[in-house]
Amino acid sequence: MNILEITLFVIALLVMIIGLAGVILPVLPGIPLIFGAAVLYGILTGFEQIDIYLILVFAGLTAFGLIVDYLANYFSVKKMGGGRAGAVGAVIGLMVGIFFGLVWIIVLPFVFAVTLELIAGREAHQALRSGIGSFVGLLFGGLTRFIIGSVMVGIFVWKVLF
Description:
Blueprint: H1 3-24, H2 30-44, H3 52-79, H4 84-97, H5 102-119, H6 124-161
């Protein structure tokens, strides 16, 4: 590796680490940032170590991570006995919460799930179970995104260095 390739690798790796932090911090687009860094590195190095096939795998992992995030909330609410209203409320709360910070990513899915369950006619205890389900889904989705992001960074480092 020459100095330019080393510099590009270090920059891409730093962006990926920031992306990995973005899996937890809501102000950064975590997995898409990791994917973007890999694509940019591939383009700038002529797809020598990071080829188009790996880019396609990373694109699939990125899409999977984003989809799992929303589905985890939806199905977790349903698993806790919540209805469709609570499940949809949890997903809406997550989408809205992304724009306001970490606390709101945790609070809004819970609030939306409970509120929509109450509006749909559920009893308070059942609506609260739906809210708890949204929190469990948030944790599962976050853990899944972290694992996917870590795998992507690990594969990137492996492919470039070895």
